[in-house]
Design a protein that fits this description.
Layout lengths: L7 H11 L25 H10 L2 H5 L18 H18 L4 H10 L8 H9 L8 H12 L6 H8 L12 H24 L10 H7 L4 H18 L6 H19 L2 H23 L15 H10 L3 H12 L6
Helix pairs in contact: 2-5, 4-5, 4-9, 4-11, 5-8, 5-9, 6-13, 8-9, 9-11, 9-12, 10-12, 13-14, 13-15
Length: 332
C-alpha cells in the first residue's frame, strides 16, 4: 500500500489547472480579518469549511425549525438536514460548472447558522425589537465574527451575507450565487414533501406547471433544477437558471406561501412563536443576569445580548425555557 502526500500548494496548483476561469481560487482569496499563517495541508477554504462544521452554531441547527415547529416526526426536515441538502446541491452545481467546490461547501454549510428558533416566524418576532428588519444572514456573520469568532475568509463571509435573494448587493463570487440557487432548490423540494407528509397539501394540489417541468416531487425536481442551472450558466457565462424553469420555480414558491407558509392554520403557530419569543426577550431584559457569559459581549447593549441569546436558541430549548419561566406547572 502506497500513499501520496497532498499539500496545500498541490491543492492550489490543481485549482489553477482544473477549475474554470470564473472560479474563485483559494490562493487568491481576499483573506481574513486577522491574518494567519497558511495551513500546510488545507487551502484557506478547506480550513473555513472545517471551522464551520466544528462550530457550536452549526451543531445547534439540528434542533431548529425548517417549516414545522419542533416537529415530532423523525422524517421532517430540520435546519441541519436542510443545510446538508443545500450543501449537496451546491457542490453538485459547482462540480458540473468547474467552480470551487470547497468554497461552495463552506458557504452552504454556514448559510443558515444565524436562524432564530422557529424559522422565519422567530425572525419576524425578533424584528419587533430592532429598528430595521432582523436578518438571519446578518446574524450568521455576527456569530462567526463576534459571538463565536472563527476568522473566516472574506469569500465565505460574503456568501453567508448574501445567500438570501433579497439581499443586495448579491454575492461577490459565483460560488455564493450557487448557494442562492441551491438553497431555493432544496427548501422548495423538501418543504413540498414535508407539507405532503403532514397532510397540509396533496400531490394533486401542486401547480401543474411544476409537475410538467420537473416531474414527480422529490429527486426528479432536484435533478431538473440543477440541470437547468448548469445549462443556463454555460450558455450565458454567469450562474443562472433557464427562464422557463425559473418562472415555474417562482410559481411553485408562490403556491407554497399561499398554501403552506401563510395558510390560516399557520397563523396560530405564528402567534404562539411571537408570544414565546417576546416573553423570553422581555423576561431577559428585566433580568439580564440569566444571560450566559458567552453571550455577554461587552460591546453590545443589553438588548443586543438578549437578542443574541434568544436568536441562538434551538426550538426545544426555547420551548423548555419558556415552560420553565411561564408554565412551571407543565414541568415535572
Amino acid at each position: 500500500m502506497e500513499f501520496r502526500r497532498r499539500t496545500r500548494n498541490e491543492a492550489e496548483r490543481l485549482e489553477r489547472e482544473l477549475l474554470a476561469p470564473a472560479a474563485t481560487l483559494s490562493s487568491r482569496s481576499k483573506g481574513r480579518e486577522v491574518p494567519e499563517e497558511p495551513d500546510p495541508y488545507r487551502t484557506a477554504f478547506e480550513r473555513d469549511r472545517d471551522r464551520i462544521l466544528h462550530s457550536k452554531a452549526f451543531r445547534r441547527l439540528k434542533h431548529k425549525t425548517q417549516v414545522f415547529i419542533d416537529p415530532e416526526g423523525d422524517h421532517f426536515v430540520t435546519r441541519l438536514t436542510h443545510t446538508l441538502q443545500v450543501t449537496q446541491i451546491g457542490r453538485s452545481i459547482a462540480t458540473f460548472l468547474s467552480l470551487n467546490e470547497t468554497l461552495t461547501e463552506a458557504i452552504c454549510l454556514g448559510h443558515d447558522v444565524g436562524h432564530a428558533p422557529f424559522g422565519h416566524a422567530g425572525e419576524e418576532a425578533l424584528a419587533d425589537y430592532v429598528d430595521a428588519e432582523w436578518l438571519h444572514s446578518q446574524q450568521g456573520l455576527r456569530i462567526f465574527q463576534v459571538l463565536e469568532p472563527i476568522n473566516l475568509t472574506w469569500e465565505v463571509l460574503d456568501g453567508i451575507r448574501a445567500h438570501s435573494w433579497k439581499i443586495d448587493p448579491p454575492p461577490g463570487t459565483p460560488e455564493g450565487v450557487v448557494c442562492r440557487f441551491a438553497d431555493r432548490i432544496a427548501y422548495l423540494t423538501h418543504d413540498v414533501l414535508d407539507a405532503m407528509r403532514a397532510g397540509v397539501i396533496a400531490e394533486g394540489d401542486l401547480p401543474a406547471s411544476a409537475i410538467a417541468r420537473f416531474g414527480e416531487p422529490g429527486s426528479p425536481w432536484i435533478a431538473a433544477m440543477i440541470a437547468s442551472v448548469i445549462e443556463e450558466s454555460i450558455a450565458t457565462g454567469e450562474v443562472a437558471m433557464e427562464p422557463d424553469c425559473l418562472e415555474v420555480m417562482h410559481e411553485l414558491r408562490d403556491f407554497m406561501f399561499d398554501q403552506v407558509y401563510l395558510r390560516p392554520e399557520a397563523a396560530a403557530h405564528k402567534r404562539r412563536v411571537f408570544t414565546i419569543i417576546h416573553e423570553l426577550v422581555d423576561h431577559l431584559l428585566d433580568d439580564p443576569s440569566q444571560i450566559p457569559d458567552t453571550y455577554r459581549n461587552p460591546q453590545s447593549s443589553e438588548l443586543g445580548q438578549v437578542i443574541d441569546y434568544v436568536a441562538g436558541m434551538t426550538d426545544r430549548f426555547a420551548l423548555r425555557l419558556h415552560d420553565t419561566l411561564f408554565r412551571p406547572e407543565a414541568i415535572g
